[in-house]
Amino acid sequence: LRPPAGARTMSAAEDAEWLRWVTKQFGSIAGEDKEIDLEEFKTALQVKESFFAERFFVLFDSDGSGTISLEELLKALSLLVHGNETDKLRFLFQVYDVDGKMIKNRLIWGVLRRIGVPALSRRGARSPCAGSGSIDPDELRVVLRWCLRESAIALPEERLGDLTLALFEAADKDHSGSITFEELREELEGFPEVMENLTISAASWLKPPPPTERSRRPRYLTRAYWHNHRSKLAFLGGYASLNLLLFALAALRHASLGGWVAVARGCGQCLNFNCAFLAVLMLRRCLTWLRATPIAEVVPLDQHVVFHQLVGYVVLALATVHTGAHVANFSRLARQDGRHGLAEYLLSARPGVGGLGGTASQTGLALQGLLAAMLAFASPCVRRSGHFEVFYWTHLSYISVWTLLILHGPHFWKWFVVPGCLFVLEKVVGLAWRRAGGLRIVEVNLLPSKVTHLVIERPQFFHYKPGDYVYLNIPAIATYEWHPFTISSAPEQQETLWLHIRSLGQWTNKLYEYFQQPEPPSPEPKPLSRSLREKRRRCWAQVGAAGSLPISRLSQCYIDGPYGTPTRRIFTSEHAVLIGAGIGITPFASILQSIMYRYRRRKQSCPSCHHSWCEDLRDEEMTLRKVDFIWINRDQKHFEWFVSLLTKLEMEQAEQEPGGRFLEMHMYMTSALGKNDMKAIGLQMALDLLAAKEQRDSITGLRTRTQPGRPDWSKVFQKVAEEKRGKVQVFFCGSPALAKVIRAHCERFGFRFFKENF
Question: How far apart are CA 36 and CA 24, in angstroms?
């Protein structure tokens, strides 16, 4: 009986309306007997596991008939909706109070119903899942096991026993060997957030979490939006103004030749600028260099790929209008002339028309076709659907486009000469890197969730910043394909480069499958040098991922880069908030490792008492005062990617630093149910108690407690704002949908927001 998605937490007035809605829904679910059985109840509740559905069902089935009538359902829900805190706590206690004969009785009652025993014949008997009035260790263990399954958490039986013991010892105040209702209530009072959630309408336990309310005022009209996007908006304003100015000047200069010619000339002048500007926006090496200059504070260099796409659409639109205006003008001339048709104007070279040898019409039509093909095959549906080579080869036609533009427009070369030379220079440098010889993949590690960890021998003169990315080519996977991946190792790691690649597309899946295949027999490999063996040993000591599979097959690869990203700003921030979702941790892995190296260099120790501390990390290149690292994962296995690195970071900061910790980590597991869900209250309490006792988290093994569910961004950013450790900048790498949510919260709190873009 789940209300429609989008329903909000109910007020007292809405409760009555919701009960009327339940009555209506009951009629659509119940059978001819006007009652709901267990299977129908499970379907309506849509829970992952049947245990809690059965517990709710039994508690609603007050007469023990094995079915729920409308009267029973409304009576139970009314008690939960309008009941006091004690009523809701008692319901929670009854859910966890599992009779030891539950399974046997459940089977018997199921058989009775299937063979058609009337409900009245079964009434008066003890409910098949009724409790005993207290919770013993075995019952608690059963409930916690189902809580783990409901939250998609896998722990060994020994760990389940530790959780059971921790919660039982804390709740069994009188050491009687069982937990009573009063003892459970007393223990819950030590968890204020649980008691707070119990005061919410208990009917919300049976419906999805409420969505965040949107402001009636569009975010684009808010002052915070304009403040946080001032450089981007100023750039777009300047870009639009320049195009309007170029169009107006060219149109006015040719106005005497007719309206269609004026429009065509205006669009042509804009095309001169935009087609050259497309090259500027893809000068990755120049843009990487500009990130280290004051220009980066004014020009939105982080958005260069987005602007490249925008300018591409503008070019196609201008070219369409330009072509259409010329066709209209040729049609007018053909009607006036009477001797030459429109086709002759379009397909024949005519002196005086424009272009090299009067071929403006022919080169223009060719350009229109090439531009349309390039944009069509550059769409996300083509690039991400396993047809990257189609995008790659059609996009290479930019060479033909620029050649035709030089032949088509007599003044285009003036606009193109500087960006064109820089573009060619960058390509020559990249080609020189590739011709210098392939690099050897030292090790390959297959991680959970189809993540491929490549350890590549680092070139001698390869210098990069934390968070930079490279283009990778592996001929064994695809000869001509180059794909961008963030470098996940720190620059201080001199001998190897790390890449963590999630299998999301055709190329990345082929990469994972290639190294997953059994290695064919091969001649005895060349013995590795002592330095390379030591390099591999240190590399694996740092990775340390559980369940990893080392691969001995070595392949050749080529890299192009490095190229800068918004994360380069992190070290010049004062308070940086790093948010990674899933594999989005990779740029932050490099940054966190670099911070760890710098932290280790500045760590001091007293020779007398051996007390250690860290000097201020701030210097000319790093003004950081505080770093908050937030990692959001869907399930437990995803944390295995970098858990060893995070453990080392925690160990480096074992002692409390003056003024608080420099680095704080926050882990979230979205598949785990939170403390506001009745199906997880006991589990989360047990995890909290055991973490406090052992000083480590049961899910990841870190000291940082893994929080269930998704972050409450309002609370997270509110806490960051209250710390007042300097100007806050938020750096995100993950899905576009989550980026929009975080960006909106950053605008609300006045934080600068940066997103990883390739």
Answer: 14
- The 10 Å CB-count burial string (b at 16+, else e) for 259-291 is ebbbbbbbbbbbbbbbbbbbbbbebbbebbebb
Neighbours of 201 (CB within 10 A): 19
d(CA 92, CA 643): 35
DSSP class of residue 585 equals G
Please classify residue 247 by burial: count the beta carbons closer than 10 Å to its beta carbon, then call 0-12 exposed, 13-18 middle and 19+ buried: buried
| Residue bearing tokens 């100015």 | 245
d(CA 725, CA 727): 7
Which helix (DSSP H) or strand (DSSP E) does residue 366 occupy? Answer: helix 360-377
Q: Select from 199, 181, 223 the least CA-distant residue to 749.
A: 223
Dihedrals phi, psi of 465, to nearest 5 degrees? -105, 155
> What is the C-alpha separation between 164 and 161, in angstroms, rounded?
5
The one-character DSSP state at 303 is: G
pLDDT category of residue 614 using cuts at 50, 70 and 90: low
Query: Looking at residues 352-376, what average pLDDT do you find?
Result: 81
**pLDDT tens digits, residue range 641-697?**
788 778 887 777 665 455 557 788 899 998 888 777 777 788 888 888 888 888 888
Strand order in the sheet with 663-669: 706-708, 663-669, 626-633, 575-581, 728-733, 752-755
Give phi and psi for 187, each to the nearest 5: -70, -40
CB 558 within 8 A of CB 438: yes
- Tokens matching residue 79: 């008690």
Beta-carbon count within 10 A of 647 CB:
17
Yes or no: say if 194 and 188 are a contact pair by the CB < 8 Å rule. yes
Question: How many other C-beta atoms lie within 10 A of the C-beta of residue 356?
Answer: 13
First to last CA, the chain: 45
Pairing of strands 483-486, 469-473: antiparallel
Q: Which 3 state secondary structure label does DSSP give 315?
A: helix
Residue type present at position 496: T
Helix/strand/coil for 440:
strand
d(CA 31, CA 70): 12
User: How would you classify the pairing of strands 556-563 and 439-447?
Assistant: antiparallel
The CA-based angle 285-238-232, given to 5 degrees, is 60
Minimal CA–CA distance to 309: which of 245, 380, 373? 380
Asked if residues 704 and 650 have their Cβ atoms less than 8 Å apart, the reply is yes
Q: Kindly write down the DSSP assignment for every residue of 644-700, as one continuous string.
A: HHHHHHHHHT-SPPTTS-SEEEEEEETTS--TTSTTTHHHHHHHHHHHHHHTS-TTT
Q: For residue 409, give the amino acid letter.
A: G
Residue pair 471/285 in contact by the 8 Å Cβ criterion: no
Residue 401 CB neighbour total at 10 angstroms: 18
**HSE-up of residue 60 (Cα within 13 Å, Cβ side):** 26
C-alpha distances in Å from residue 635, one per residue of 161, 484, 509, 708: 22, 26, 21, 10
- CB neighbours (10 Å) of residue 597? 14
Query: What's the CA gap between 741 and 730, in Å, rounded?
Result: 13
The predicted-structure confidence for 702-736, as pLDDT tens digits, reads as follows 888 888 888 989 999 999 998 888 888 899 988 88
More confident residue, 546 or 401: 401
Residue with tokens 């001995």: 552
